[in-house]
Write a structure and sequence with these properties.
Layout lengths: L13 E6 L7 H5 L4 E6 L4 E5 L17 E6 L17 H11 L8 H38 L3 H5 L18 H8 L1 H22 L37 H6 L12 H34 L2 H26 L13 H23 L13 H29 L11 H29 L16 H43 L6 H14 L5 H25 L13 H34 L1 H14 L15 H19 L2 E7 L1 H12 L2 H4 L2 E6 L3 H8 L1 H4 L1 H10 L2 E5 L54 H13 L10 H13 L1 H10 L9
Parallel strand pairs: 1-4, 1-5, 5-6, 6-7
Antiparallel strand pairs: 2-3, 3-4
Helix pairs in contact: 2-3, 2-12, 3-5, 3-6, 3-8, 3-9, 3-11, 3-12, 5-10, 6-8, 8-9, 8-10, 9-10, 11-12, 11-15, 12-13, 12-15, 12-16, 13-14, 13-15, 13-16, 16-17, 18-19, 25-26
């Protein structure tokens, strides 16, 4: 008998653990039964069974022909209550966190890997400073400094009356206005700190099952065990050299899904950086005035500025010095650092506020705060860091090149560039709209405007948006034309696949067009590369234009032809309105998602893809749901196979297949050999393998196939997300991929299918008969069930049944049986 069709196994329980994909699913839909019961877990993520299957392990004879289905529902981790809509504001943080995980394989270059991690963490830090600087721009510069200092602007704002400079009140002095307005960005930073700490506790503080006696931690002498490296390696990014990666894939390391120490450390550094940014804005304005007037206040200002610089250097050292520790479960926390750094920065902020609030009767606010310099330095720094990151990534790729790696290893730098662009757009959008609102009918910066307006750099950045959109027209047109041509070519393949003798042109074209459109996913690297490259070049042009134009938009073109100057002004005006419109649309979408469950579910899909990875670069990014879901699945598989000795197939669709693979990697070797993996509509190789080659590359997926007992993958040519794994047959193990499933199941009307079958694409793989066939083959390949082990609770229940009767014992087994479940 061939390896693909082994002799069927019988006896003992068999469990099919279902894991849904993006967008979520209800237990009723997954189990195809309106009556389901939660057997373990909570309202956030839980295992569910049909009511009739609760005692399946006690009656294995009932399930000789099929496994017991059990559904793991994790959708509430990403698309639960309405407050998740606010996560949209954290989108740049999420994107830069993805860049950390997109590095090419190490190729034995440990120092380059550390440098890559350092550069990404520095980029993440600049985004925190950028967000805080934007809040300071709105609250301090536009509101407290410009509008409150202008009689015409403050006259129309009753809530600014007590701050108005022309009224001569206690708060009318510029320093006191700045000190009061600084409470707004300070509250924003405190809110981000609170959300980061709360989401860590709610979602990610789930220890992997290394303490469970069935999941043994590698012995100290095992090279895979390693050490936390904090005392020896100042930056243990959790990225081993080539030999370590070969011994134990990264996702199988004990501490991979438990980044408590790094998140706490980064949270302290970013919180401190936010407070220091606010303190610098307030203290800097007062110190510049005092240096002109002289006296003791100037000395105090210099001392405070020096303290702020020193604290900022400490934040940089904290961010640079250490990365992730994955080789062992790291329970330690830098308690002294976590407690000291935010508290010290908050103390400096308080001192800066007191210093600025000191009476300065002759001080008058005029012009703007030095926002142009701040935003210019931030933009330039981000550009240089992205370029340096690209050099390191390209160097890593060349040491171990692979044709399937997206953008030749430059996917991480391109993604980091997009994160910076998103941060810049959101910053510019907020500043532009607030300036327009405060100025009323006027135009900020114009002759009749009441206030000067936001930094000119933001206007220049807005001017590149129309140019960027024009640049994108060409590749989008090329993709559309290529897709149409591909659909025509696929038409012949469709007729051949179905063996159609009298084809229906409309039906054939629809199937062919769906296949061609699904292939657009593979064009994403080229499109993202064009966007990232154009954004980098246009951003550099915006910085140069802002610096050469002084503080007047369009001055760089003053000596140019009138047509060029007019085009520049038009681009700036159009880009400004586009930024404002985009920001309003962004906020409106978030508000709608707060009230509308369907919109919230759409946003949840975005987080399903973007928050799979732990927070390794930015602590204020949305929480990683996999740090809850992967331990859940690992614990369930370990405990069930240990107590029942049965066979288990974990069945994952779409993003669920990624969770399933990550959970299997965490299992001990003897448990993996009792587990089969069934994936369908899986992005493991098509997306994760290309964009995250150090973790889901060809070598890692091949190693996973060697570690798990058996693995089968189902895919369709019409699926825009899932695809083949590409792992060939190895010895007695067949190839992971089955031939592409036909979609739709039949071409036209048949006796068994009298109505037209839909083109399913990425959904409903279970509707294909091949799904049940492959699941049966996987279960047949697993070893026979082992004798069932008794737990202590079960033994106690049996002992008490002798004295209390069989009915009481049966009740206890229903509520706490060998699989460790409760009736829910």
């Amino acid at each position: 008998m061939s390896p693909a069709t082994p002799a069927p196994q019988s006896g003992g329980a068999a469990l099919e653990l279902l894991v849904h994909g993006v967008g979520g699913a209800t237990p009723q839909d997954m189990l195809d039964d309106p009556r389901t019961i939660r057997v373990t877990g909570d309202t956030t993520a839980a295992m569910h069974r049909r009511g009739a299957d609760l005692d399946a392990e006690d009656h294995p004879e009932r399930y000789a022909e099929r496994p017991v289905p059990e559904a793991y529902c994790w959708s509430n981790l990403t698309s639960g209550n309405g407050t998740r809509a606010l996560w949209l504001l954290l989108l740049p943080f999420m994107v830069v966190n993805l860049a950390h995980w997109m590095r090419p394989p190490a190729g034995g270059r440990r120092r380059a890997v550390r440098l890559y991690g350092v550069l990404v963490r520095l980029l993440a830090l600049t985004l925190t400073v950028l967000l805080t600087a934007a809040a300071c721009e709105v609250a301090l510069d536009l509101t407290a400094w410009q509008c409150a200092g202008s009689a015409a602007c403050a006259a129309d704002r009753a809530w600014l009356g007590f701050l108005a400079a022309d009224r001569g009140g206690w708060w009318s002095q510029p320093g006191r206005r700045l000190a009061l307005a600084a409470l707004v960005p300070a509250a924003l930073v405190a809110l981000l700190w609170y959300l980061s700490n709360r989401t860590w506790t709610a979602y990610e503080a789930q220890r992997p099952p290394t303490g469970y006696d069935d999941v043994a931690t590698p012995p100290p002498g095992d090279p895979a065990a390693g050490d936390s490296g904090d005392s020896v390696n100042p930056d243990d990014s959790g990225d081993e050299d080539q030999e370590q990666e070969r011994i134990r894939p990264a996702l199988g390391r004990p501490g991979f899904w438990y980044g408590r120490r790094l998140v706490a450390r980064l949270r302290a550094a970013h919180t401190a950086a936010g407070f220091l940014t606010i303190a610098a804005a307030v203290c800097g304005a007062a110190a510049r005035h005092d240096r002109v007037t002289g006296g003791a206040a100037a000395l105090v200002g210099s001392v405070l500025e020096g303290a702020l610089v020193l604290a900022a250097l400490v934040c940089l050292v904290v961010v640079i010095r250490r990365g992730r520790s994955e080789k062992r479960l790291d329970h330690a926390v830098d308690s002294a650092l976590v407690a000291w750094l935010p508290a010290a920065s908050l103390t400096l902020l308080g001192a800066a506020l007191l210093y600025a609030a000191w009476s300065r009767p002759g001080w008058v606010s005029a012009g703007t705060l030095p926002g142009d310099t701040t935003f210019g330095v931030l933009t330039l720094s981000q550009g240089l860091l992205v370029v340096a990151l690209g050099v390191v990534a390209l160097s890593l790729y060349r040491s171990a090149p692979h044709a399937r790696t997206a953008m030749s290893g430059l996917g991480g730098p391109a993604t980091a560039m997009l994160a910076c662009a998103l941060g810049g757009v959101m910053t510019g959008g907020v500043a532009q709209r607030v300036a327009d609102w405060l100025d009323g009918p006027g135009t900020p910066g114009a002759g009749g405007g009441r206030i000067v307006g936001p930094p000119v750099l933001l206007s220049w950045q807005a001017s590149v948006i129309p140019v960027l959109l024009m640049v994108l027209v060409v590749p989008c047109a090329v993709l559309a034309a290529r897709t149409a041509l591909t659909a025509r070519r696929f038409a012949k393949e469709v007729d051949a696949d179905y063996g159609v003798t009298s084809p229906d042109p409309v039906r054939t074209q629809r199937i062919a067009s769906t296949r061609a459109a699904a292939g657009l996913t593979d064009a994403a690297p080229a499109l993202i590369g064009i966007v990232a490259g154009a954004t980098l070049l246009l951003g550099a042009g915006a910085v140069a234009g802002a610096w050469t134009s002084g503080n007047v938009p369009g001055r760089a073109f003053a000596g140019a032809h009138d047509v060029i100057a007019g085009a520049a002004d038009t681009a700036q005006a159009t880009g400004s309105w586009l930024v404002g419109f985009g920001f309003i649309l962004f906020v409106t979408w978030g508000r709608r998602a707060y009230k509308d469950a369907s919109a919230r579910r759409t946003i949840g899909i975005l987080w399903d893809v973007g928050t799979f990875w732990p927070r390794a670069a930015h602590p204020f990014a949305p929480p990683c749901y996999a740090e809850r879901a992967v331990p859940d699945l690992t614990w369930r598989m370990s405990s069930w196979t240990r107590t029942t000795g049965g066979r288990l197939v974990i069945s994952g669709h779409s993003q669920g297949s990624v969770l399933a693979a990550a959970a299997v990697w965490q299992l001990p070797e003897h448990t993996r050999h009792r587990v089969a993996l069934l994936t369908y509509g899986s992005p493991l190789e098509r997306l994760y393998g290309r964009w995250f080659p150090a973790y889901f590359g060809t070598d890692q997926l091949t190693a996973l196939n060697g570690e798990v007992h058996c693995w089968r993958n189902l895919w369709r040519a019409t699926d825009p997300i899932g695809g083949p794994i590409g792992v060939p047959a190895d010895g007695d193990k067949p190839a992971v991929d089955r031939d592409a499933l036909l979609d739709p199941l039949v071409y036209g009307r048949e006796h068994d299918h009298p109505l037209p079958e839909p083109v399913l694409g990425h959904s409903d793989y279970q509707a294909d008969p091949a799904f049940a066939d492959e699941r049966t083959l996987l279960l047949d390949r697993l070893p026979p069930a082992l004798p069932r082990q008794r737990t202590e609770a079960q033994a106690a229940g049996e002992g008490s049944s002798d004295s209390q009767g069989s009915s009481d014992s049966q009740g206890r087994r229903d509520s706490q049986d060998s699989s460790g479940r409760s009736s829910g």
